[in-house]
Design brief:
This is Transcriptional regulator, TetR family. This protein is an all-alpha fold. It folds into two domains: 58 residues, Orthogonal Bundle (Arc Repressor Mutant, subunit A); 139 residues, Tetracycline Repressor, domain 2 (Orthogonal Bundle), CATH 1.10.357. Helix content is 64%, strand content 0%. Helix 6 packs antiparallel against helix 11 and helix 9 runs antiparallel to helix 11.
Length: 216
């Protein structure tokens, strides 16, 4: 589905309005305008139709958000929990999760507070991840909390991945914060082939998975 959506994303000239086209255009509008300006009216304008025309193909904004969630999360690899040990599967899942949302960072704030009810593919992912945790010996009462803890870290890391490269640079104040500046430069030279954001993500992910492993 994602390849088709990407091919058809954009302003349609004479396309027949349908659900797939609406969702593809919704992604385009979100990526361009951000969540604050993402409205049904803005989507209809992009499609060249009146807002009521959308409701012949979608159930409303929540339905569109569910479809957008499916598009954004399509690249998340949760099947790894069927074949890899828990820690390796969790790391692989987290990396693909971060990459999926880093490609559409505006979706994070838009979808973070929308219940997953009705988002069937997302629920399927949670089912597979939960089963992977369960098979690894996790107590039932800690599984969802552990998943949410990982998601909180992953989504924050996805935003960091698209932040400016000089996000942490002290600039003209480097002389006033020598300890921090020295640590920053040391980190840059330790893994020169990795971005600062990637280094932070890998370090944090390793620490988080190791810490969670001790809670099983």
């Amino acid at each position: 589905m994602s390849e088709t959506l990407e091919r058809r994303a954009g302003r349609p000239a004479k396309n027949v309005l349908n659900r797939e086209l609406i969702l593809a255009t919704a992604i385009t509008v979100l990526n361009r305008t951000g969540p604050e300006d993402f409205t049904m009216a803005a989507l209809a304008k992009e499609l060249g139709v009146k807002t009521p025309a959308l409701y012949h193909h979608v159930g409303g904004k929540n339905d569109i958000l569910a479809g957008m969630r499916q598009f954004v999360t399509a690249g998340i690899d949760y099947e790894v929990f069927k074949s890899l040990p828990w820690d390796e599967a969790t790391i692989a899942w987290a990396r693909s999760y971060r990459a999926a949302f880093a490609a559409h960072p505006y979706a994070i704030s838009l979808l973070a507070t929308v219940p997953v009810t009705g988002a069937h593919p997302t629920l399927v992912m949670y089912e597979e991840v939960s089963q992977g945790f369960r098979a690894a010996g996790w107590p039932e009462g800690k599984i969802v909390s552990a998943i949410v803890a990982l998601e909180n870290f992953i989504l924050g890391s996805a935003l960091d991945a698209v932040a400016p490269p000089d996000m942490m640079d002290p600039g003209d104040f480097a002389g006033e914060v020598p300890g921090y500046t020295q640590a920053l430069r040391a980190g840059e030279s330790t893994e020169p082939r990795m971005s600062r954001a990637d280094q932070a993500f890998e370090l944090g992910l390793a620490a988080l998975v190791a810490g969670l492993a001790g809670l099983k």
